[in-house]
Amino acid sequence: MRKHIPLIAGTLTFILLASLFFLWTSGDFSPVISKHIPGMDGEPSDKATREPAACENVVIGEFFKKFSDKYEQSASLWPRFRGPDFNNMSREEAKLSDLRDSQTCEILWNIKLGEGHAAAAVLNGKVFVLDYLEEEKSDALRCFSLEDGTELWRRWYKVAVKRNHGISRTIPAVTEKYTVTIGPRCQVMCVKTDSGDLLWGKDLVKEFGTTVPGWYTGQCPLILYDQAIIAPAGKDVLVFGADCETGKILWKTPNRRKWQMSHSSLIPMSFGGKKFLIYSSVGGICGISIDGNDRGEILWETEEFNHKVVAPSPLPLDGGRFLVTAGYGAGAALFQLRESGGEFSVEKLKSYPPTGGLCSEQQTPILYDGHIFSILPKDAGTLNGQFACAKEDEPDKILWSSGKTERFGFGPYLIADGKFFILNENGELNAAKASTGEFQKLGTFKALAGSDAWGPIALTDGKMIIRDSTTMTCIRLSNKKDK
Predict the structure, then answer these.
(1) What is the pLDDT of residues 237-251, one digit of tens each?
(2) Which of 89, 124, 245, 360 is the most buried (most CB within 10 A)?
(3) Better-predicted residue by pLDDT, 24 or 311
(4) What are the sequence ranges of the domains in the chain?
C-alpha cells in the first residue's frame, strides 16, 4: 500500500492544479475596486456616532482666538443653507463665466480643512465655516475674508468625534447680528457675527435626548425672526425656537410620535395664509407654524414617506405641493396640502422608486421655471449620477438627463446668471445652460484636486466657494481682463 502513496498524492495534486487552472481561465477574478461612498458598507455606523460616552463634558464655545481684522466689506450674501431665498438660486446680476475659457475664472485662495463636507455661509465680505480640527479634536467656527482667505477669528470647543465618511457636514446660519452652528454630535452654538463673542450653547443629546444620526448631524441651523430654530427630534421636543440673544426657549413643538433626527434641514414654506416649516424626519413629515398665536404647533403631518436615512430637504412647489426624496431605494413622493377654515390636511399624490422619476440621494433638488432639477441617485439604474429634469407636476417623468458621459455623483449644484453650475464629486466644476428643454453643457474647470466634493456651493459677489473632503476653495467667476 505504501508504494502507491506517492502515486495517489501525485494524482490528487494534478487534479487540484488542473481545477485551479480551469477556474482561473474561465472565471472573472478581477479585483472589485469601488469608490468610497457613504452607505456602500451598509447602514450608517451607530458605534461611531454614539461614542464617546454621553457623560463627556463638552464646554461649548470655550475657546477663542483672533487672527486679523483684515477684510474687505462688501454686499456679499449667501447666509445659510440653500442661499438667501432657500432655493439654491443666486441673486447675482453680474455676468459670470461659462467656464469655456480658463481666463474667465481664477482660483483666489485655498484653505485646508478637517475632513468633512461642511460648506460655507457668506455675509458682508466674511466667510463662515464650521470646521472640525482633527488634531485638537474640536468643532471650530472659523471666519475668513472672502477676498483673500485670511482667517479673521475662530471660536471652538473640544469634542471627540471619530471619522465616519468624514466628520463635519453642516452650514452655519448667519445674520447681521447672530451666527448659529450645529456640530457633528449635535452641539448648537450661537455667537455674535461681527466679533465671534459667545452668546450661548446647547447640547441636544444632553438637553433633549436627541439620537445623533448615522454619519453625524446633517441638519443646517435656521435663523428666523432673531430666533435659532432647531429640530432636536428628542424624547419630548421635535422642534424649538430659541432667542438668539439669550438662548431662552421661546416655543417648543411636542414630539408626540417620537420621530428622530434625520440629515434633512427645516425649510420655510407658505400656503393657505400661513407660514410654516417643513421637516422630513426619520418617522414622517410635518408642517410647523412659525407665526401667529399657534407658533410651534403642527399644522399637518404624515407618515407616508418614512425612511431610515433622509438627507435632502423637502422641496416646496407651487400650489401647496412639495416633493420629498431620499436614497437607499426610497425614491420620492409628491404631496398636496389643502386648507379649509384654517385647518390643514396633506395627501400623497404619487410616489415612485429611484428608477421611476426625479429623485435625489444627497442634495436637495432645485425648482426653476416650473421644472425640478436634480442629480439622480446611484440606484437610479442607467441614469445614475446624471443631472436630470422633470416638470414639477409630473416628477415621475424624466424629460431629459445629461447623458452617460456626464455623471456627477453626489456633487452639489445651483443656478446663477442663467446657468447651472454643477460640481462633479471629483472636483470638476461644470457650467450648463439653465434650460428646461435639454442639457447643454457650456464648459468645465478643474477646481479641486481632492475627492468627495459634496458640500453645497456658495455663490455671491462673483465668487464661488466650494470644497472637497479636505480643502475649501474660492473661485472668481469673472474675466481676469476685466479686473
Answers:
(1) 999 999 999 999 999
(2) 360
(3) 311
(4) 44-84+116-238, 262-352
